[in-house]
Amino acid sequence: GDINIPADIGLTFGDDGEKIEGDGTDLTISGNNIKLTADTDVIIPTNVGLHFTDSAEKIESDGTDLTINAGADINLTAVADVNIPSGVGVTFGNDGEKIEGDGTDLTIASSGKLALDVTTDLEIDVDGGDVKITDDGAHVADISATAISGSSVSTGSFAYVNVTSKISGSSVSTGSFGRLEVGGNTNIDGNITLGGSINIGDA
Predict the structure, then answer these.
(1) What value does the mean pLDDT take over residues 115-132?
(2) Which entry of 21, 45, 161, 197 is 20 to 30 Å from 84 by CA?
(3) Where does the pLDDT of residue 143 fall: very low under 50, low under 70, confident under 90, or very high at 90 and above?
(4) Which secondary structure element, helix H or strand E, spans residue 108, and what is its range?
């Protein structure tokens, strides 16, 4: 049968600082460090959580999903990397907002807009040399270190380009524009070659 220890009677190890005691409902294990040295796993049943301080900070499994709750922030303080397996994404809100890698490419998906808000500059380091822009998979434009070119219909040219500020650079010699509007100043240190005309309005 059982060895029954009455409620509020403890089992001490060495002194009262190391003690196991039940009050008829809860079991309390006291000690300096409590070490679990199982040879295999420490198994916590389904829908039974592991609390830290209170129920707001909790880890619990329902047999399928593991839920980590926090009353405020969850801090990951790894000294090296936090590794997420290939083909497993990090979602924000729902699966429409997701970051996922397949072992080669990293995909950032958004069901609406993707906003990049930086306080200084946005630096894009592309070893391949080109930034490719598509619209629902269809090619729209390429941006490289030497040229802006492309169109889903006619690669190498733009039908219409509107610049609300200014254009500055060493030269404009690549690509072609059917129409170019500049709302500000244009500073070019090199040559401009025109196949058509220049229309200048009132100053």
Answers:
(1) 88
(2) 45
(3) confident
(4) strand 106-109
Task: Quickly tell me which residue has 């070490």 as its tokens.
Answer: 35
Q: What is the CB neighbour count within 10 angstroms for residue 43?
A: 7
- CB atoms near residue 144 (< 10 Å): 15
DSSP code at position 138: E
Q: Which pLDDT tens digit goes with each residue over 30-65?
A: 999 999 999 999 999 999 999 998 888 999 999 999
Q: How many CB atoms lie within 10 A of CB 150?
A: 22
Q: Decide: helix, strand or coil at residue 50.
A: strand
Give the model confidence (pLDDT) of 66-88 as tens digits: 999 999 999 999 999 999 999 99
30, 52, 64, 68 from 56: Cα distances, Å:
22, 8, 21, 10
Tell me what pLDDT residue 83 has.
95
pLDDT at 152: 43
Whole-angstrom Cα distance, residue 152 to residue 120?
32
Say what the pTM is. 0.62
Decide: residue 10, CB within 10 A, 0-12 exposed, 13-18 middle, 19+ buried: middle
d(CA 163, CA 169) in angstroms, rounded, equals 14
Max Cα separation, the chain? 104
Question: What separation in angstroms does the CA of 116 have from each of 56, 107, 122, 202?
Answer: 32, 15, 8, 38
